[in-house]
């Protein structure tokens, strides 16, 4: 069988029509090096960062990349019944701050605007490569969701295919546009303002709300008020307001149960395969795994086995809690640009 850790390819699951990234080397990933007394690789002065001079935000290669420009060519004997392709792509880490602890809300507004800029620039740079079809940008925080390094950081997976969830969204936006000649998300924002019960925070260019169709108890979506497809479409003032709302949302989470909260933050942007996606409307989704102060919501048999999500609670009540927490969080933030609608 040879060295299993050398297997690096993308396999097709024909039952659910999805690509699975197989990366044998990722099995050797270290878990929480500081718990073993080892240095944090993202702090200034470590081998990974020491040649970069003074920095406030840096982009580093992922040391255990799921995808790589040097991924092996797929050997012929794999091309039998099952579909397989080369694990080509790029995995990067964005270290948002030299400070070892904290969250996005602890980064000051102007610095956070630079972070947003880095997300936009990397999206353009990686998206322009001919083998990249999608730039997936996201942030995992907290050991509850398996984050192996505590130093604040986000990740980028530049992919040779469009992720299934994005495919699904594109289809929905396209269908809606064909039928109504309007954007699905622009209409959702309009309805959410009419109803008001799920709004959490807004500034001049963005709205944060708990969606009507939330799957996670304290899910928050951040919607640009203008119909844009990806981060590079944002004007300078809009980037500042995005920085603001990301700080407010993370501060809201950390205030909700008066404890540091884990979450996933995902950017949903258009693919980078140069096709026309004018019907799409970019947005940012936050999933937070707690359903109560000490109770985790697990994705288990019904969620994983059937892709059916049950919402434990009432979305409008959870939105109210988030709005209250946001009010308290704003009092603690050094600067913010918006208000509770
Ligand atoms: Zn560190
Ligand atoms: Zn729109
Ligand atoms: Fe989405």
Topology:
Layout: E1 8-13, E2 18-23, E3 58-61, E4 84-86, E5 90-95, H1 109-127, E6 134-141, E7 153-159, H2 164-180, H3 184-195, E8 199-202, E9 206-209, E10 220-224, H4 236-256, E11 263-268, E12 283-287, E13 290-292, E14 295-296, H5 301-306, H6 315-332
Antiparallel strand pairs: 1-2, 1-4, 3-5, 5-7, 6-7, 6-11, 8-9, 9-10, 10-12, 11-12, 13-14
Helix pairs in contact: 1-4, 4-6
Bound molecules: zinc ion (2 copies) and fe (iii) ion (FE).
General description of the model:
The termini are far apart. A hairpin with a 3-residue loop joins β8 (199-202) and β9 (206-209). The chain has helices spanning 109-127, 164-180, 184-195, 236-256, 301-306, 315-332; strands spanning 8-13, 18-23, 58-61, 84-86, 90-95, 134-141, 153-159, 199-202, 206-209, 220-224, 263-268, 283-287, 290-292, 295-296. It is built from six helices and 14 strands. The strands form three sheets. The chain has a nine-stranded antiparallel β-sheet, with helices on both faces. Strands 2-1-4 form a three-stranded antiparallel β-sheet, with no helix packed on it. Strands 13-14 form a two-stranded antiparallel ribbon. The protein is of the alpha+beta class and 341 residues long. It has two domains: 30-69 and 87-159, HIT family, subunit A (2-Layer Sandwich); 164-336, HIT-like (HIT family, subunit A, 2-Layer Sandwich), CATH 3.30.428.10. The model has no long low-confidence stretch (mean pLDDT 92). The structure holds zinc ion (2 copies) and fe (iii) ion. One zinc ion is lined by residues 40, 42-43, 100, 151.
């Amino acid at each position: 069988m040879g060295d299993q850790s050398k297997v690096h390819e993308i396999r097709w699951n024909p039952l659910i029509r999805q690509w699975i990234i197989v990366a044998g080397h990722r099995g050797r990933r270290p878990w929480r090096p500081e718990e073993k007394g080892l240095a944090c690789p993202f702090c200034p002065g470590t081998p990974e960062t020491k040649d970069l001079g003074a920095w406030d935000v840096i982009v580093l290669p992922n040391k255990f990349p799921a995808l790589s420009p040097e991924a092996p060519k797929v050997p012929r004997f794999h091309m039998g019944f099952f579909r397989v392709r080369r694990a080509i792509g790029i995995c990067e880490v964005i270290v948002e701050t030299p400070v070892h602890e904290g969250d996005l809300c602890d980064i000051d507004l102007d610095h956070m605007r630079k972070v947003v800029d880095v997300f936009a620039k990397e999206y353009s740079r990686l998206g322009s490569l001919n083998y990249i079809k999608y730039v997936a940008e996201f942030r995992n925080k907290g050991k509850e969701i398996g984050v192996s390094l505590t130093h604040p950081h986000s990740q980028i997976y530049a992919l040779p295919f469009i992720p299934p969830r994005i495919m699904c969204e594109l289809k929905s936006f396209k269908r809606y546009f064909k039928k109504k000649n309007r954007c699905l998300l622009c209409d959702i924002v309009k309805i959410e303002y009419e109803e008001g019960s799920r709004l959490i925070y807004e500034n001049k260019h963005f709205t944060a709300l708990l969606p009507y169709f939330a799957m996670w108890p304290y899910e928050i979506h951040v919607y640009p008020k203008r119909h844009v497809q990806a981060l590079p479409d944002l004007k300078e003032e809009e980037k500042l307001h995005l920085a603001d709302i990301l700080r407010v949302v993370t501060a809201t989470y950390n205030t909700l149960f008066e404890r540091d909260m884990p979450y996933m933050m995902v950017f949903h942007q258009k693919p980078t395969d140069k096709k026309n996606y004018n019907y799409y409307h970019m947005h940012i989704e936050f999933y937070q795994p707690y359903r109560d102060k000490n109770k985790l919501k697990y994705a288990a048999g019904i969620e994983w086995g059937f892709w059916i999500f049950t919402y434990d609670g009432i979305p409008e009540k959870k939105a109210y809690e988030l709005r209250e927490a946001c009010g308290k969080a704003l009092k603690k933030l050094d600067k913010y640009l918006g208000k509770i609608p």
